[in-house]
Amino acid sequence: MAGFALNLAKPETQRSSTSSLIYDPKVRGVFYQVLTVALVALFVWMVTQNTINNLAKANIASGFDFLEGRAGFDIAQSLIPYSSDSTYGRALIVGLLNTLQVAFFGIITASILGFVVGIARLSKNWLIARLAQVYVEIFRNIPPLLVILFWYKGVISVLPQARDSIAMPLSSYLNNRGLFFPKAIWGDGAWMIGVALLVAIIASIVIFRWARKRQAATGQQFRSGWTAIGLIIGLPMLTFLVLGSPVTFDYPIAGRFNLTGGSTIGPEFISLYLALSFYTASFIAEIVRGGILAVPKGQTEAASALGIRPNVTTRLVIIPQAMRIIIPPLTSQFLNLTKNSSLAVAVGFADVVAVGGTMLNQTGQAVEIVALWLVIYLSLSVTTALFMNWFNAKMALVER
Amino acid sequence: MKKTILSAAIGAAVLGTASAASAATLDDVKAKGFVTCGVSQGIPGFSNPNDKGDWSGLDVDYCRGIAAAVFGDPSKAKFVALSSKDRFPALQSGEVDVLTRNTTWTISRDTSLGFNFRTVNYYDGQGFMVKKGLNVKSALELSGAAVCVQQGTTTELNLADYFKANNLQYNPVVFEKEADATSAYDSGRCDVYTTDQSGLYAIRLKMKNPDENMVLPEVISKEPLGPAVRQGDDKWFDIVSWVHYAMVGAEELGVTSKNVDEMKTSGGPDIKRMLGSEEGTKIGTDLGLTNDWAYNVIKTVGNYGEVFARNLGPDTPIKIERGLNAQWTKGGLQYAPPIR
């Protein structure tokens, strides 16, 4: 690029055209770049052609037509309607949604836990700081697969059998087949509760903005947090009561083999979700601690000098500055969590790799399915990265 | 595990020219000096390594039989342990020469996967194992049960079909490795474990309390298990097939590893023909082998009955009767075409 700019700035000299072309850094630069691209393209083309030729020679069917075939196998946990009559394509989507589900909840839990532990490590309370340190050192130094197996074989499979389920509050039960809880069956007009919740959330956002503007203008504070909590809990509750409790529950009851009815979260999901959350949280805790420590001490001192109380200092002075340092490495941890979810095969959770593996064996289309896996994980990672870049730009320090 | 598939797929993609598409597996095998067989990761009676890493089992003996036919030496066989998911890419890519891994012969595996099957070394069928304490007498009582199953097997598909056909609900718990699936069943994650019946009897022995488990009477599928090779190499396919037929034929004719030397000189014409001691015979050279290939197989590995008795029969811990796998003369399905 430097040569490019230099060349543009230089006036054209009168030399023989061939030698000037050979010695022209701009032409040379373009030549090597074209050469590199051509070589890469050639390599990709050769690999593709070779694969196609070899598949044809080995009489192996190729192409993505198989995705429309009948899957023929069942999947235990599915967010969308699925049966063995569905297509392979739909089975893969079921797996993808399961991956997304565990990644989504894992990221949320890992972030919350990571922030709490990261801040706890900086606590002045000796016990809290040491406990947080022990947590980080344990989970950070164990491979994620072992953490998953720990939860699956060490915690959940030693829970009681279905007949001796542990009874929990709200008619929930816990046993080695998972967590069972009542399923809400909504009656007429129940959609209005959802509308009420949505209205409450929007109203809260409006109140937050108004309160911030007013504080900026007049310095008067408003308890917007409490108001929002009141709105978000109160408004749907009020609607619920006004409508005359339009909900019934389907409770889990003991069946021949297991509890039936209600909703279930399988042990595979629970162990994978907990393991990924606990594992990733240990890294996030370190990132958070590093981010907070990176904010100069002078900031705290300046805030105290202005008479700002310590917890307000943390919330309004330290954290916003630390966030700028925390977010980029946090993105990597989110990506890692998503990718580590492919370890689900170890515990038999039907994620996109596990479902793809079954498909691979039923259809034998190894090259196609491996390619689909690569594309899926690449898209997931790129999407996460784009979102975090946007968030990072939003959180960046505004230069005044 | 993912790595294996990836490398197999990439192997097929990049290096495929040499091995995967090669039409002459026999030449490759002779050049490298041993036969590479794909086997299971440990199913007692079929292919199971002991604590010293020595393999034994029906499928393992088949591989040794092929090695004996090609080299006259059963020890020139190498075994690659494959999960059910990895076995097909491994054969497609040329990582193994033959798959002797209790693999069910189906039309889609024969066609779209690019394999060839001809012989069945074990006629099996899928069954269910449950804990005796559940008091279940028939598979039709299993509605609502959690079923542990190994990923990517015909078992998984038969299970879905059977429960659908009988309008039963179930909750599949699918594992890639058989050991994980069985240990999940053993620890009570599932009510039922399902696989081929031969496998159920073998796996029952691995349970904490084998006697607390029982195999239900229903057999819900046909599972003809046999060796598979890549399409497009008829010579190698013939060798793998005729090793099986020689073992079955030898049992029918009463030739065993103990009396084969004597039979070679004093047996009837059909026995001499099979063992390659007939004048001017081309029984082996036409296959690309030596004329005494069948003799070598019987001498070193034994006939089908001996192999069955050694690995699966009533004197082993697995205790499986011959049943469908008896000779056709005794009401079974094992039948060898004439060797002439």
Pick out its properties.
heterodimer, A: 400 residues, alpha+beta, MetI-like fold, 4-stranded antiparallel β-sheet, 13 helices, disordered N terminus, B: 340 residues, D-Maltodextrin-Binding Protein, domain 2, 5-stranded mixed β-sheet, globular
Distance between the termini of chain A: 32 Å
Q: What's the helical proportion of residues of chain B?
A: 25-40%
Whole-Å distance between the termini of chain B?
45 Å
Mean pLDDT metric of chain A: 85
Indicate the CATH class of the largest domain in chain B.
Answer: Alpha Beta
Helix fraction bin of chain A: 55-70%
Indicate the CATH topology of the largest domain in chain B.
Answer: D-Maltodextrin-Binding Protein, domain 2
Oligomer: heterodimer
CATH class of the domain at 88-145 and 266-395 in chain A: Mainly Alpha
- Please tally the helical runs of chain B, counting DSSP H or I stretches of 4 or more residues: 13
* CATH homologous superfamily heading of the domain at 88-145 and 266-395 in chain A: MetI-like
* Largest sheet features of chain A: 4 strands, antiparallel
- Spatial strand arrangement across the major sheet of chain B: 10-9-11-8-12
Number of domains of chain B: 2
| Model regions low in confidence, pLDDT < 50 over at least 5 residues of chain B | 1-21
Cα-atom radius of gyration of chain A: 29 Å
CATH topology of the domain at 88-145 and 266-395 in chain A: MetI-like fold
Compact summary:
The complex is a heterodimer of chains A (about 400) and B (about 350). Chain A is an alpha+beta fold.
